[in-house]
Amino acid sequence: MIDLYTAATPNGHKVSIALEEISLPYAMHVLDLGANEQKQPWFLALNPNGRIPAIFDRDCDDFAVFESGAILIYLAEKTGRLMPLDPKGRSLVLQWLMFQMGGVGPMMGQANVFFRYFPEKIPAVIERYQGESRRLFRVLDTRLQECEYLAGDYSIADIANWAWVRTHNWSGVTLDGLPHLQRWVKAIGARPAVQKGITMPPSSVNIHADDDKSQQFIKQARNMLETGQSRAK
Predict the structure, then answer these.
(1) Distance between CA atoms of residues 205 and 191, nearest Å
(2) How far apart are CA 193 and CA 32, in angstroms?
């Protein structure tokens, strides 16, 4: 049994999607990020960085794993699923996984901060992060022109990138003119395990609409951002 500590974010959904894809039993524990539950001592014992997701593998001497990319690798290696065993195939998956970890996630995350949450709108900063996110999308589109999935076969690399790319509207970045990326987003989104994984837990915000729930979420995120800034002083 895997204990999954998570919330409805792209990084959290990466892991729930992977768990659903490999049909590994897990118990979900949803953390209230607005209440800073992820900063409580009991959770910091699992993840010293105080971020979701984290897992606790009860079948492996109660082993804790944090960082979403590290969790995906751990689950793939534990089960022999979603990543090839041969060195070249494994490396290819890890390359595209690191592409997400080091590029897509951070750039889209900062686009979210300055486009949605930061109280002051700074056009040059917004353009910087949206533009870099769009550039990374073009890289993905070029790769997906050559093959159906990022590393050949469907893998944790696809799961990690898809969990972020699907939220492109929230970052203010379009997929227009990227037909291969659009095809890939649609194909992965149609997978039953993926459809279930993005509801574990369900998001409280509609990433495609600017409704009352979205505004409430923005208010909460802005408060978390401002609280973080004050603690850093």
Answers:
(1) 22
(2) 24
